[in-house]
Design goal:
Structural class: alpha+beta
Number of domains: 3
Strand order of the largest sheet: 3-4-8-6-7
Number of strands: 17
CATH architecture of the largest domain: 2-Layer Sandwich
Largest sheet: 5 strands, antiparallel
Number of helices: 13
Shape: globular
CATH topology of the largest domain: Uridine Diphospho-n-acetylenolpyruvylglucosamine Reductase, domain 3
Order of helices and strands: HEEEEHEHHHHEEHEEEHEEHEHEHEEHEH
């Protein structure tokens, strides 16, 4: 069922007799079990003040629509929203509520932060069918929670987002990327680490078989910093459309699009990225965030999934399966203390357990 506004969502939640699967544009992970509650009817920009760099928008608004409005004022969402349709083999239009729900963040996270770091406020319907607004009504036993941080990345398990507000960013005058040939992932991450440790304000650091390092800003500054970085790490400087195309490919994980098997998103310390790859052998992969974010394609079987989880556990990271059906949970199981906290939060906001059952895994 598709709701047309916040009041209708609240009515649906209050009258629900069983689980609800919260759906936006349907471009990312598979929907949870339960009756579908689609938020794509909640569209439109409520407030946009370019001079104040602020945007308030309803949760079902397509990301492409928002990006178009911002671009007309030479502004953007700083966290570089990934487009997962090619990777996941889906159509549809990504919605801003879905982006917040999964805290979707692209290559610029290393410099500008994640989606949650640009998020200023939220409105959502909780599991009692009550409308909650960040900074507004205070709930019993909820005082002190940072609702913005809780909702970003909560996978729709704490409430149904209806409106979100952001701090936006001016589009820089210029960008340049250094493309550095390297022998392997370990050498690539070493190059990325040198660039990230420099004073040149890197906004992208990825490895796709080459080390890729991006800088952005005023034209004169970009030229100077690109040349200084080239003296530090070597490589070829590409600019304008060629640079932008490289980072769209990283953002949207294009090297893994069309690859068969299971798709995994792995988060570890940047220096551990090559360690994970070394245990997997020759598999399709892409590294972002200086080596701390890995995208890999593996055989879609239980043995491969368990071996990966074992490796990532030993390194203190997380591995989430975005595509595939092997017999392990999609979401990385939480340690017992974290799982207890997660369940306590879910009970606080969704006491009847309505929202997106199974979207967060426990140990």
């Amino acid at each position: 069922m598709q709701a047309k506004d916040e009041a209708e969502i609240a009515d649906i939640v209050r009258s629900a007799k069983g689980p609800l699967s919260i759906v936006g544009g349907g471009t990312r992970r598979a929907a949870a079990s339960g009756e579908h509650l689609c938020t794509s009817g909640l569209t439109g920009i409520s407030v946009y003040e370019p001079g104040a760099l602020t945007l308030v928008v309803r949760a079902g608004t397509p990301v492409a629509e928002i990006e178009g409005v911002l671009a007309a004022e030479r502004q953007r969402l700083a966290f570089e929203v990934p487009d997962m349709r090619g990777l996941m083999g889906r159509a549809g239009a990504s919605t801003i509520g879905g982006v917040v729900a999964v805290n979707a963040s692209g290559p610029r996270r290393i410099q500008a932060g994640a989606c949650r770091d640009s998020l200023l406020g939220v409105r959502f319907v909780d599991g009692r069918g009550e409308v909650i607004k960040n900074g507004g009504r205070v709930m019993k036993n909820v005082t002190g929670y940072d609702l913005v941080k809780l909702m970003a990345g909560s996978q729709g398990t704490l409430g149904v987002l209806t409106e979100v507000s952001f701090r936006v960013q001016a589009i820089p005058e210029a960008e340049a990327t250094l493309v550095v040939p390297v022998a392997d992932a370990a050498a690539g991450v070493a190059v990325l680490s040198r660039a990230l440790g420099s004073p040149y304000d890197v906004t992208g650091a990825a490895y796709d078989g080459r080390a890729l390092v991006r800088i952005e800003g005023m034209a004169g500054s970009v030229t100077y910093r690109a040349q200084a970085l080239q003296a530090l790490i070597g490589g070829e400087i590409v600019t304008v459309a060629a640079s932008a195309a490289l980072w769209r490919a990283v953002r949207d994980v294009q090297p893994l699009q069309g690859v068969t098997g299971a798709i995994w998103r792995i988060s570890v310390k940047p220096t551990d990225g090559p360690v994970v790859l070394a245990t997997l052998g020759a598999v399709p992969h892409l590294l972002d965030w200086g080596g701390g974010l890995l995208w890999v394609a593996l055989p879609d079987d239980r043995a491969a999934a368990l071996a990966l989880r074992d490796t990532v556990n030993r390194l203190g990271g997380h591995a989430t399966r975005l595509r595939g059906i092997a017999g392990v949970p999609d979401v990385h199981p939480e340690a017992a203390p974290v799982a207890a906290l997660t369940q306590a939060l879910r009970h606080q906001f969704d006491p009847k357990g309505l929202f997106n059952p199974g979207q967060l895994a426990t140990a």
